[in-house]
Amino acid sequence: MIKRILYKNLTYLTPLICLFLLSSSAWAQNSMGAKSIAMGQTGVALPATNWSAFSNVAMMPTDQNRVSFYGFRYIGIAEITDMAATINYQTNWGTFGGGVHRYGFNLFNENRFLLGYKNSLGNFHYGASVSYVHIYQGGNYGSAGAVGFDLGLATLIVDGLWFGARATNINQPSYGDTDENLPRELAAGLSYQLTGDALVTAEIVKDVMFPISFRAGLEFEIITSLFARAGISTEPETYSFGFGYLADKWEVNFGLQQHNPLGLSPALDLAIHF
Prior knowledge:
- The chain is mainly β.
- The chain has one domain: Porin.
- It has four helices and 14 strands.
- A 14-stranded antiparallel beta barrel has the order 1-2-3-4-5-6-7-8-9-10-11-12-13-14.
- Strand 11 and strand 12 form a beta hairpin.
- The longest helix is centred in the first third of the chain and has 14 residues, at 13-26.
């Protein structure tokens, strides 16, 4: 199918090749937000981030309502870009989250719509989400959709030390009448507030179709509200860094990821707190 598209649309040769090479790390991406990208794509044990609805629903923030917007351009090519938005809303019955995510361009794109919920019992946090994922292939090659369910758990072990875990697409969904499954993975990790200014994260991620990925990140508050970040990952091998600024009612984050061998990819997000 991809070869037929290439012959028909040679203009899109480069983005399609890059789309194929990036598919193992980008497909159904859970590592959203420029903070996560800058910290080696970690997030499963990061407490109260704007993008926890995707990375670990049990870690969704409970202090404020938040709306966030995100963009990530793979190796500078406009046709293979992630765009996403989330909202976290507090109620007396727990925290609700919603998210949308689009990846790709007119010949191939993946669109995801997510609804999540989290609550807690003391230091134990739990949550679940449901997603509808729709795949579109241009050139009259059709489209299909599937519904997936994710689970998330997290606990504060001691002051400053969090453990988090998630299971993605536990119902083993497939697109329509095909045998093409949504990606399934397990992730678990730790985050630790070393000092008031320094945070470290480490996690392992196992997709059923790919080798285990190890990821680690560091965040340091340079001056009040200004953060510097760095991270690494394996499978695929990446190095990253970035910055973030946190105000009372808004925040902005930037990340830059070096993918070996493909190159640099920038990420940017903006959040409003209310």
